[in-house]
Write a structure and sequence with these properties.
By secondary structure, this protein is mainly alpha-helical. The chain is 71% helix and 0% strand. The protein is built from nine helices and no strands. The longest helix has 40 residues, at 15-54.
Amino acid sequence: MRREAICRREQPNDHGIKHRRCDQRSARCRRKVEREAIAHALECGRLLTEAKATVEHGKWAAWVGEQCSFSMRTAQLYMKAAAYVGADPAKAQRVADLNLRDLAAFIAERPVVEKLLDLGVEDADEFSEEDQTALLAMLMWWKKGKPAWRKQWRLELARLAKEQGVPESQVIFPKSGGGGAGE
């Protein structure tokens, strides 16, 4: 609506030139607003991440609902974007010209290996694509898992390491499945 008002004001005689100038200004304004929106989304994501660390377990969704004027899904997008960018100016530049919808697609479509690197798996590119996907699923499950599961996992890892006489990082896990020892 505002664009139309600006264009009408500049269109008395020379329709084509004035209208093109108006379109160019409009496009520049739109790019500036989108760039600022991404910068604000990244800052909001950093602040949300800090806030989440202070909120009692299981109360995060309610906190977002009470404190934010946007949805939980938007909060998650902002936090994922902030986690992706971190303090890396190259990554910030990579997403600077995106709008929020494109940012969401970019975050979702990042290669599995890049997501693994973000989770601290330094040699992720040495795994096959199938193993990368399985590892990412396991790590995401691990991050979301309850502390009791993690404790049980650590105990099992320590038991197997002792049983095999190797450090925990070299434990070979028995194949699991429904068939028993013969499989």
